[in-house]
């Protein structure tokens, strides 16, 4: 705000709205909106909300119209000597200058506060970025180690798959050999069962033939044995 600005701001700490209509002006060169002025200055004793000054004089607080009518402006200083008019005008300008100076100080203070907060936020942001960078680096390391572990597992899985395939091939081969041997044993067993009865029948026939061959010999021996005995008896009698 400069001297050419046509709007004052309420000096109440939590208000600071642009003033229009009516305003409350104090002897300590502060100005307040009609709402806060009515609330603060109707109590006794009156205390300035901006600087805590006591306002006990009759004219220490004035409710004034910020946009007076043309008739008021024509008559308010009428009849006063020029030095009085200049004195009043200089005091009014001094009030305005003080308001401009206070506004500059307030803006500088707000700017310094904002800069301080900005620096603090930048510091916090830098720390957070560093922390995030460290976390990101750690996560990258973990990802790299996990990739290595995954590659190791893939390699082991490939080896196990190859071993399993080789075992399956060996199993299939052994299964084929087992099936062929079982089939061969089954064929041999059937052949043996078919040949065993024929061999038994041949042996029986051979026995019968041998008996038939031996039977005439025994008959001949049985028939000739008594004759031999009689001849031996006759020779013994002669002697």
From TrEMBL:
BP-aspect Gene Ontology terms: reciprocal meiotic recombination
InterPro entries in the record: CCNB1IP1, Znf_RING
Domain RING-type: 10-52
Example of a GO cellular component annotation carried by this entry: synaptonemal complex
Organism encoding this protein: Collichthys lucidus
Keyword field contains GTP-binding: no
Domain of life: Eukaryota
Protein name (database record): E3 ubiquitin-protein ligase CCNB1IP1
């Amino acid at each position: 705000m400069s001297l050419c600005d046509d709007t004052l701001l309420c000096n109440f700490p939590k208000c600071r709205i642009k003033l229009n209509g009516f305003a409350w002006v104090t002897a300590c060169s502060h100005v307040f909106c009609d709402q806060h002025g009515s609330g603060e200055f109707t109590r006794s004793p009156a205390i300035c909300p901006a600087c805590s000054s006591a306002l006990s004089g009759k004219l220490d607080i004035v409710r004034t119209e910020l946009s007076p009518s043309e008739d008021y402006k024509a008559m308010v200083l009428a009849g006063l000597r020029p030095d009085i008019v200049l004195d009043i005008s200089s005091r009014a300008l001094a009030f305005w200058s003080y308001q401009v100076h206070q506004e500059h100080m307030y803006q500088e203070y707000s700017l310094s506060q904002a800069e301080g907060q900005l620096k603090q936020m930048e510091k916090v942001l830098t720390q957070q970025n560093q922390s995030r960078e460290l976390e990101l680096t750690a996560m990258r390391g973990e990802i790299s180690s996990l990739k290595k572990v995954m590659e190791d597992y893939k390699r082991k899985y490939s080896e196990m798959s190859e071993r399993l395939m080789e075992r399956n091939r060996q199993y299939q081969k052994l299964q084929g050999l087992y099936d062929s041997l079982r089939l061969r044993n089954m064929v041999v067993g059937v052949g043996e069962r078919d040949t065993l009865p024929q061999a038994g029948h041949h042996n029986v026939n051979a026995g019968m033939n041998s008996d038939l061959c031996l039977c005439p010999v025994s008959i001949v021996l049985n028939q000739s044995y008594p004759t031999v005995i009689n001849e031996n008896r006759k020779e013994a009698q002669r002697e």
